[in-house]
Amino acid sequence: MNKQEISEIKKLFTPRNCSITRICGCYVDGEKNKKSSFREAFLALPEEEMFKYFQILRKNLSGTPGRNLLTLEFPLTCEESGGTQEFLLRLRDSKLKDDELLDQFYDKVIEAFTYVGNYLILLIHDAYDVPGKTTDNIIMEDASDEVYEYIMCCICPVNLSKPGLSYDDQTGVFRNRIRDWVVDMPEAGFLFPAFTDRTSDIHSLLYYTKDANEFNLSFMDTLFACPIPLAAGSQKETFQAIVEDTLGEQCDLETVKNIHDKLNEMIEENKDNPQPLSLDKKEVRSLLLNSGVKDEKLEVFDRCYDAAAGEQTSLLVSNVANTRTFEVKTPDVVIKVNPERTDLVETAVINGRRCLVIQITDQVEVNGIQIRNNCTDDDEDIL
Questions:
Q1: Interacting residues of 142 by C-beta distance below 8 A, sequence separation 6+
Q2: pLDDT tens-digit series, residues 181-214
Q3: How does 270-296 read in b/e, with b if 16+ C-beta sit within 10 Å?
Q4: 121 has which bridge partners?
Q5: Which of 124, 303, 328, 338 has its CA 20 to 30 A from that of 139?
Q6: How far is Cα of residue 101 from the mean position of the Cα atoms in its chain?
Q7: How many helices (H) and strands (E) does the chain have?
Q8: Alpha carbon distance 352, 342 (integer Å)
Q9: Which of 124, 123, 141 is nearest to 132 (CA)?
Q10: For strand 173-176 and strand 165-168, is the pairing parallel, antiparallel, or unpaired?
Q11: CA distance 137 to 197
Q12: Do the Cβ atoms of 56 and 183 come closer than 8 Å?
């Protein structure tokens, strides 16, 4: 699913657009015991509760595609009788009215979800009347193409509220505040089936994770059994390993600057595309070649890529590029540069020593203090 498709579903979680038919939940304690469960019509809830649930549901679709939001595809074996996709289809088609099926789902989550503490398993069913679109992408509210029927699950930690003092209006005094069990925003969740090309895609789902750098692998494998991409942090580390291993002793500052600049150019060119930009093995090779890596160094690229990532693995550009800063680090010094001004940094040999050279102007601050440039005319443009 891309940004626009995710945004369209996210907009349903408002009083005006809501079409949620049913909401269910199971409260689980830290020992994996079911403490309580509920099932009721969503539109029958008090307005205040509805708004709280809307916040949770919208959060479950928040983040960046490819980082917090992952589209996972089911293998064919999962679509056979008894498979993970087939089970989720039965759950959706039951419209969450089958208590036995709900208990099976809760049991699967409790068995697989790794979490220290109490949590709430939330599950909703919705039937979205998908409005049509004209050829110039104008939505026609009164013209429906189909009904997108889906379920969404949110797994939310339940924690004690913070201790503190509260004011009692009746007595006019401050008292120790009563601590309540409070439902927090989701740690993980999913939308099934996926909403791809504005239609139901039963062959895939959208998975949400709060921590883009660490997936709950047991939960994902038990409930979905889909191929799982590398986490965002792992993709970055993998890309760095590919570059270092391919270049070897020739991994110099100029080449790394070129790679950084090329990646940021790709992001800028793709900024209006709702689909996240990814690079496969062939495209990473082309990136290195265009960044000045010599042909003889690319002779080892295939081996380095396969060892670090796997031949069929693609890497998201947004996960491997740093658009916010260009960082140069030594054991004792860290320098952060505007990512658009990498030209200000270079290396040089001065008095027989390798140095990092940074062009400066007369506007230099150290610990917030404006310093005066006492350089001579010959070296006033470097630090």
A1: 131
A2: 899 999 999 999 999 999 999 999 999 999 988 8
A3: eeeeeebbbbebeebbebbeebebeee
A4: 26, 155
A5: 124
A6: 30
A7: 11, 20
A8: 24
A9: 141
A10: antiparallel
A11: 12
A12: yes
